[in-house]
Amino acid sequence: MALNQEITSLTEIKAFKTSWTVKAKIVHTWRNLPTFGGETLDMVLADESGTLIHASIRKQQIQKFFKYIKTGEWKTFENFTLAKAFGKYRATDHTYKMSFMNNTIIKSCPSVSNEWYFNFQNFEDILNDQALNESFLIDVIGQVVNVGEIKIHEIKNKPTKKLEIELRNTIDERLSCTLWERYADTMWNAFENKGDEKLICLIRLAKISTFNSQRSIANAYDMSLLEINPKYPEVEEFVANLPNDDLPLTLLPKESKVGRKKDYYDSFPRKTISELGEATEVGKCKIMCTINTIDTEFPWYYFQCLKCTKTADLIPKKENEIVKKGKKPTFNCRYCNEDTHKVVPRYKLVVGVMDNTGDTKCMLFDNNAFQIIGLSANDLLEGNWSEV
């Protein structure tokens, strides 16, 4: 093992050797789960000068390195390969992309800076198709001034959530933003619970899109990081420079749902429960039934990480541990790879249903369960989160 390796800045590393040693902060991580294999654990690293590079760990190496990859921590990285960065959705503008090897060495080191090394782009450049290359992902900050409704689109035979919002900057320029799936849920939850607070949206690694000659931004699959009202100095400065006009956040007018709902339901054949049980092919249908039981053998809720909207697991208290009154329980989010207190309970109801031909069980998640019960899972629990 090499000792006392000379630290090289990220601007100086080249592809002609693998025995580099760099010191960098892990500023963002995500899992890349392509449809046809090739899973990777990816991250953006930043050195003290603010130079960023995209680093990647292959599926076979994730178990080996996973415990060392903690967002926000400074590390030294020794021995890695570099290849030319190319293609769409590039996480940084670095010439190279870093890949770990089996003999890569990751060590903890003292923190060099509390910076998160954002590179926020101004709206004028984003909207100008001559200014920014759409192949590169960007960092964006804006005040949410308009929120649409969550819509469901069929994409690759899968129902996919979509939410349109509008952002403004400190000089009241506007930028359209599309959020998909868990990002749409995160924004909608923030909108519903914002109170009188301004809603500040920060997106790390947003993609620029052009449609009908109009530019907008969107999350780049699971690569992006969406944070609402985060506590960064850059956000505080942004809020301080917003126009002092008390502009309200508005909900964009909803389209009439009656016709759309009828068309949606009419697109699926109606089946009885007995016909459903005899089905031999995967498909979609609708059933008219009565809910007659709630299966209490299964947990009726789960905890959702507010950062990524994935499931978070309650960390049980240690044996003989004295828990201070008012202390929030701690959860672990495997997707974010960190412990957190920022979770919210969501419905996951297993219900028994019946019609005149038979009975079966269905699972209802948060939106559908809320429409039936009329209260959120959080309201029903009344803060008793430890009683799973």
From TrEMBL:
UniProt keyword Heme present: no
Pfam families: DUF223, Rep_fac-A_C
SUPFAM superfamilies associated with the record: Nucleic acid-binding proteins
Gene Ontology molecular-function annotations: DNA binding; zinc ion binding
Alphabetically ordered keywords of this record: DNA-binding, Metal-binding, Zinc, Zinc-finger
Replication factor A C-terminal domain segment(s): 287-381
Source taxon at top rank: Eukaryota
Residues in Replication protein A 70 kDa DNA-binding subunit B/D first OB fold domain copies: 8-109
Family in the record: Belongs to the replication factor A protein 1 family.
Protein name as it appears in the record: Replication protein A 70 kDa DNA-binding subunit C
Organismal lineage: Eukaryota, Viridiplantae, Streptophyta, Embryophyta, Tracheophyta
